[in-house]
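Limitations
The structure tokens in this dataset are predictions for the assembled complex, not deposited experimental models. Users should treat interface geometry with appropriate caution, especially where small molecules or nucleic acid strands are included. An illustrative entry is reproduced here so readers can see what is and is not provided.
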Amino acid sequence: MSSATATATRTMPATSQLATFWLDGDLFGVEVEHVQEVLRSQSITRVPLAPPAVAGLINLRGQVVTAIELRERLGRKPRPEGQEAVVIVVRLHGEAVSLLVDSIADVVDVDVRDFEAPPDTLDGVGRDLIRGAYKLSGQLLLALDVNRAVGT
Amino acid sequence: MEGLDDIVEEFLVESHENLDQLDQDLVALEQDPRSRERLSSIFRTIHTIKGTSGFLAFNKLEEVAHVGENLLSRLRDGALDLTPSRTSALLLMTDTIRALLAEIEASGGEGSTPVADTVVVLSAALEDAPAEAAVEAAAAVVEAAEAVVEAEAEVVAEAQAAAPAPVKKAAAKKPPAKRASRAKTPVPAPAPVPAVENVPVPSPPVAAPAPVAELPQEVPVPEVPAAPAALAPEPGTPEAQPKGRGVADSTIRVDVDLLDNLMLLVGELVLTRNQIVQYVGRQNDQDLIRASQRLNLIASELQESAMKTRMQPIDHIWSKLPRVVRDLGLQCGKAVRLEMEGKDTELDKTLLEAVKDPLTHLVRNSVDHGIEDTAGRAAAGKPAEGVLTLRSRHESGQVVVEVADDGAGIDPAKIGRKAVEKGLITADALSRMSPQDLLQLIFLPGFSTAAAVTNVSGRGVGMDVVKTNIEGIGGTIEVESVAGRGTCMRLRIPLTLAIVPALTIECAGDRYAIPQISLQELVALDAEKAAAAVEDVGGASVYRLRGELLPLVHLADVLGLTSDRHDGHVVIAVLSSEGRRFGLVVDRVINTEEIVVKAVSGQLKQIGLYSGATVLGDGAVALILDVQALARRALRTETTDRQEHRLAAAAAAASVSERQRMLLAAIGGGRRVAIPLDTVTRLEQVRSDTVERVGSREVVQYRGAILPIVRLDRHLGAFGDSDREVLEVIVYADHGRSVAIVVEEILDIVDGEAAVQSDIDDLGLLGSAVIGDRVTELLDVRAAILAADPAFYSPAPGALPGGLGSMPDIDTSAFGFEGTSSPLMEV
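Predicted assembly:
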């Protein structure tokens, strides 16, 4: 898992860093370079008639940023009452968008050799948004396709 | 300096900048004499100065620039090489121009700054003069000029007077700056004959091009001492000016992007200020409160100043219009005088750019269509000269710009005919429109009233584009016209786009902002009043606002939310969009505040209800409602919508289904009649014992007028219950006349997808349709109204069916039977 295991002959970068988070019992990761910041307990203004995955708008130091409810987006059940979402602000094509997740975890280095296509157990909606899975020791890390995830 | 025209001031600023560049360019050019680019750039600069100074009648300046330009053009074309002497000559020219500019700035005129020497040197440089001689000549002049500074008045006079006679003495002796030396020096260089034409010194009226003999006496001496040291053609002149900053020093050019960014930051500051002020309001710390008050003040001032950096007087775009009007007037053979009021009114640069073209279009329109030709004006008893007036002023946070003419005005009837002719509306729709509505037709795409297409206007593009452009920047346009008296187009433009005043309201627990520009008034009704005044029929509600029917839109319904207001109170924000009013029912009105408009992402924009979002004082995000979209979505009868439908209908070239809101009424005998809601002005209840008779007709007194009555049941041959105590009345008003249509009961307001049967053309009905699963007759409102008041549409159009003449007597019901039976049977 460390960069020492990488060999110079690989065409794609052998390792990359993923910022990981928990969502509905699964561990997900997004490329660190997309992540701008992580915020806790933001008040969200709902947007009536918006697509269901749009949780609303948040005020990010004066910027108005759309918040995507990742549970809804991945076709998971709603977050239990009383559990507050954590906001991951990602920057894509110069625009900030935020993802609502359950809780934030570590930044991990992943090795391409541990990468596999999305497991068959993943169902419909979510499957398109997952690039694949990294087999970490004792845990599967699902790599989120951020671009698709925010493109509701 | 305050005496200076804006134009002159601008010219000065621009020229000073250009001259600085010129100095650098010239020096650089010396290193690289072949650089075409630099030469062209220098040429352009001088050319500009020449052009502008000629236009502003600064003749000396023009003269110097002209000779310089000649030299430059030959250098540029490669006809001459750039020698050091020529460079010196050009630099001298720069200095002289600078001196002239300084004088213009100081006194508003060119004064007596000597230019002849420079002209001589430049002319000499134009020839293939020996380099040495020219250099010396230049040096001599420079020194002489320096000498002039200290010299006494008469010396200046002498030098100046001597100048016009340089033909044979181009100036090139040994330098020692003996004051008058130049004049007496024999010319080693070939005589620059062409220079003669360039020489005449304009301001002091020195006799003629043959003045060598009579020198100093002719010079108007009194004027000379006025030339201060600053006049010396010397680069260091600004220091010599005693008073504050010169024009060039007091302004800088700033990138607009930078200003945008500044504005953005100020917006953020204002929001943060709001937050802090709100928070501090709950504290007791006196120091903190004082500090926050200061912050409040400073932030407001900063906001104002930042906004001002982007403000420009409207004169910037107006200044080009006199020419437009003059040329166009000549072209059209009309005498037009342009008057301007409120030139100083300022608005945001971006907005200024945005209204430039629409405004020019309106002005052209006025001259071309509005103002009559001389013969026409004489016939109308008006002065031969037409007056076109531009007015602008600030009014409640907006800039109002009017383009008014005293021309023939717009004839609504003519507009209507034209619109029907072009298939923009149906003849039937025309009959229902008020004159004011008719005027609005000029904003339809493809509309033009010009009898002939001229190259000025009349191609039917324009007014719709004008309207689109103005609305694009959050503005509105109205037209007012009195036939024979003139037309006034009125633009209302927001001051700035970045920060707008808005009303914040609450709906279903969330806050929303409504731009103040579309808000007309607020109406709050307590439960008791609301129950009486808001008529809620089948989900579509209307409110009688001072007698007018105001369609109501419940924001919670539009947003798919559930209102949390259960006490029966109704709060209505009366909004107007594209000339159409409606009432937005909200839960609560919170505040008015300045909001900073933030864009929302594309997917939220697509919803079509929000024009953006903003951050409120407490840091919460609020959506900004797009009033126009709201109106379009919620009001089927909204003007543009109807127009679109009519256009579609016209395209289909048949009377096809027309979707509009219909008022459903029962007329007795189980029959239902649908009446287009847009023809209805009011719903009233009238006690039957107040109905009186005038001849064979029934009338009722209503608001101090006599209102003719038509009973629909009789008119259409249904037998209703005519003994009712209270009559349900639909009031229709137009052209200042009203009629009352009596029905049995108002049932509902529905969106009618009315499949009108085109072959049915009976009196009293347009046809029938299935509305709400039931056969419903479509009332011919026009016929019904004529039944009550034959003179309603006077002068009566000839299109009336012959039988209508007998309509007033339709109390006999047999008539109606005939008219109504067939549609019922056919459906």
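Some entries come with short summary sentences. For this one: Residues 371 and 407 of chain B are 4 Å apart (CA to CA).
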